[in-house]
Amino acid sequence: MRRLGVSTMVVVTALGIVCAGLHRGSADSVQPTAEFVKASLLNQEAACGRSLDVRYSYGKEGSAQKAVSMRYIRTPQSLFLERTDEHGSILVDSYDRNQGEFRQLHTTSGGTKTGDIDNAPAGILNMQCSIETVHRPLDTGTLIDVIGRGKVASSTESIDGFKCWRIDSPAKAEDASKYVIWVDSAIGFCPRKIEIHWRDQTRTPKTIEFQDYSKIENGVWFPKVVRVTTHIASNAKYPSELVGDAVMVSKVDDVRTDVPFTPKELTVQFPSGTVVRDNLRDATYTVP
C-alpha cells in the first residue's frame, strides 16, 4: 500500500473534518460548503499519488483536420504538456510548481528550435485544450480557486441526468461576470459542467462539459471526453462560415496515476542551437 505524503494527509484530514458535518445524510442530499467541494477536489489530486499521466487528442469537432496528440503530466512538483500536430511540429511545456518557472520548447517540422522562459504556466494551463478537472484554468486562477469563493445552491440540479450541486462564483477577469459550476458528489465532486458568463450579456456563455467519467486507480475519477463550446456571434471580425458554435473536443486515450517521474524528466531542456527568450532575465541567447 502506498504511503500517504504529508500533503495528502493534510487534505484527507481536512476532508474528514468537513465530512463530520455531513454524517446525517448522503452527499447528494446534504448541501456541501464551497470549502468542502474544494477539499474534495484536492483529495482527488492527492489520490493520484506521485503523478497524473494523461494521453489524449484535441481538435475541432467536425473538422477534417487531424486532431493534435497531447500528453499531460501533473506531479506535486511539476506540470508538463507535450503537443504534436499533424505536420510534425512539437511543442513541449514544463512548469516548476515550487519555483514558478515556465519553460517552452517549440520544434518545427523542419527542425528549427525556439525556447521561452517565463514565470506563468500560460501554455500548460490553457482553457481550451486543458484536460484538468482540479486545476483547470479559469479567471485569474484555476477551478479550485473559483470554487473556493463561490456559493453552493441549496438543492441539486440535473445535468445530463446526474444530480449535481450548482456553485455560482463571481469572476475577476475583465470580460467575464461569473462562473456557474455543477459538481457531482458521486464522482468525488468533480465537475460535470462549467458555464462562463460574460459582462456583455448579449454574448452566449461559454460551456465546458466533462463527459463519460470512469473510476481509475485509488478512487480517482476522470472524464473520457471534455467539450468546450464557444458561440461566435455575427461580427465584422469573423467571416460568416465561422459564425455559430465552435466546439473543441479533448478525447482521452489513456490515463494513469502514481507513475514515478523525476523533476528533470518533466523539465524542458534546450538542445544546442535553440534560440531562447528568457523573460525572467530579459535576455535572448542561443544555446551553444
Q: What do you see in this structure?
A:
It is built from three helices and 17 strands. It is mostly beta strands and 288 residues long. It has a single domain, classed as outer membrane lipoprotein receptor (LolB), chain A. The protein has a 15-stranded mixed sheet with strand order 9-10-11-12-13-14-15-1-2-3-4-5-6-16-17. Strands 7-8 form a two-stranded antiparallel ribbon. Helix 1 packs antiparallel against helix 2. It is globular.
* Helical run tally: 3
Poorly predicted sequence stretches spanning 5 or more consecutive residues: 1-15, 17-21
Mean pLDDT: 87
* Helix-strand pattern: HHEEEEEEEEHEEEEEEEEE
The CATH superfamily is identified as: Lipoprotein localisation LolA/LolB/LppX
Amino-to-carboxy terminus distance: 46 Å
Structural class: mainly beta
In spatial order, strands of the major sheet run 9-10-11-12-13-14-15-1-2-3-4-5-6-16-17
Helix content: 10-25%
CATH architecture: Clam
Number of domain modules: 1
| CATH-assigned fold name | outer membrane lipoprotein receptor (LolB), chain A
